[in-house]
Amino acid sequence: MDNLIVLAEKEVEQHKNLVESDIYRLKYHLMPPVGLLNDPNGFIQWRGKYYLFYQWNPFKTGHGAKFWGLYTSTNLVDWQDQGIALAPTDWFDKNGCYSGSAVEDENGVLTLFYTGNVKDEQNNRSSYQCKAISTDGITFTKQGVAVELPKGYTPHFRDPKVWKHENTWYMIIGAQAEDQTGKAVLFKSDDLNEWQHLGIIAGDHVGNLGDFGYMWECPDLFELQGKDVLIVSPQGLEPEGILYHNKYQSGYFIGQLNYEQVTFEHGEFVELDRGFEFYAPQTTVDEKGRRLMVGWMGVPEQGEDQQPTVEHKWVHTLTLPRELKFVNEKLYQVPVDELQLLRKEEVHHQSVFIENEEKQLEGVSGDVLELYAQIKELEGQFEITIRDYARIHFDKEAKLFTLERPSFENGEREVRQCVIDQLDELTIYLDTSSIEIFINNGQEVFSSRIFPSKENKQIVFNSPDKALFDVKKWNLN
Q1: Which residues are CB-neighbours of 162 under 8 A, at least 6 positions away?
Q2: 386 and 314 both lie in a single domain
Q3: What pLDDT digit, counting tens, does each position of 259-268 carry?
Q4: Element (H, E) at 12
Q5: Does the active-site annotation cover 136?
C-alpha cells in the first residue's frame, strides 16, 4: 500500500518542473499535479470546508488504475492540494478507485462511497461499491465492500451517489443491464452499511424512454425547488441535429421520484453543457442551501491524447463551481458568487456600437479574465473572437448560438451549438487554456479547452449588421 503511494508522490516530484513550465497550466482551475484528471468525486461541504475529490492517474496521461486526489477550500476559490485520499491498494479496488460520492454520517464522520475496479489476468472485470471513512478529512480508512454486484447487470456497475431522504439513506448507481442497455439503479440503507437493491428507476427503454445508450455513468439524483432532478452521463447516443456531438453526453431529466414504488416519472433529456469538453458532473448542497455542481472539462476517448499539455505530463481540468437554479422549468447554471473574489482591475465600456465592422476595446484583452457583455440592441449577427482561436457567434434570425474552434485532431474548424430565442447577456470566464461561456445568466453554458498561441491575447467584437452593447472586463488571479 505505502509503496504505491510513495511511487505516486515521486511521480509528482519528478515531473513538477516540466508540468509547471507549461504555458497552458491554468491559473484558477483545478488540475492534476501530474498525469490525468477526470471525474469530480465526493463533492461535499464538511465542517465548514469544501472537499472536492477527483479521479487521478499520476503515472500517465491516459486512463488506468485511478486514485482519488483531494482539494479543499473555505471559499470555492482558494484551493489547497491535500494529495492522495484513496489509492488502489486492496483486493477490491486493485485496478482503480473509481468514481463515487461523500456524505456525513450520524456521528459526523466523513464517509466516502466509491467503485472498486478489479480485473483478472484475462482482463475480465469485477466491480464493488466500497466504503471509506475519515474523522479528520485528510486520512481515510477503507471499510471494504458495501455493495456487491446484483443479478441482472454486467460488471459495468459504478459511480455510487449517496444521499439521505427523511430517515433513510439512498444510493443511485450507473449501470449496464445484461442486455447491454444503460440504467440508473437505486438502493437504500438504514445505517450506510447494509444496502437493499430496490431496482431500476430510469434508463434505456425504461418508462417512455426509447433507445438511450448502452451505459449510464455518474448518476446524481437530488431535489431542487420541489422537483427531482436526475443528472446522468449516458454513453452511446447518436447525434441528432445539433445535439449529442461529443463522444459521450451529460444531461438531466426533471421528474418525480416515488421512493415507495421505486419509480421515476420524468420528462425529456436535456444536455447540461453545450461545449466540447464536459462530462461526469457531480453536485452537493452547501451550508447556504445552494445546489452546487462541478464537472470534468473533458470527455472520455475524445481528443485526450491530442491535447498539447500531454507533452508536459498532464491533461484535463475541472470546471468552475456553478449554482443550479430552476428558471421557467429549465435548469440554469450560475457561476458561484465567490468567483467575484478573483476580480481585479475592472474595465468598463458603455454603449459600444458596431456596424459591419470589427472592433477591439481598450483594456479588453488577455488570457486570464472574466468578460461580461450586455446586448442592448442587435440586428442580425454578433460575434466575439477570443485570441484568434475560439469564435463565439449568435445569429438572431436563426436563433442559433455557436462556439467554434480548431479540432485537436486535425486542426479543422469544428462547432458546438444551441438554440436560444434571444441573446441578452454573456459572461465568459477565460483561463490560459479554457473557456466557460454562460449565456443569459446561465440559461445555456459552453465549456471547452482552447490552446491559442501564448502571444495572442486579442479579443475582437464584430457584427456584419448592427449591435449595441456594454462590456465589463476583469483580470482574474
Answers
A1: 101, 102, 103, 111, 113, 169, 170, 171, 192
A2: no
A3: 999 999 999 9
A4: helix 2-14
A5: no
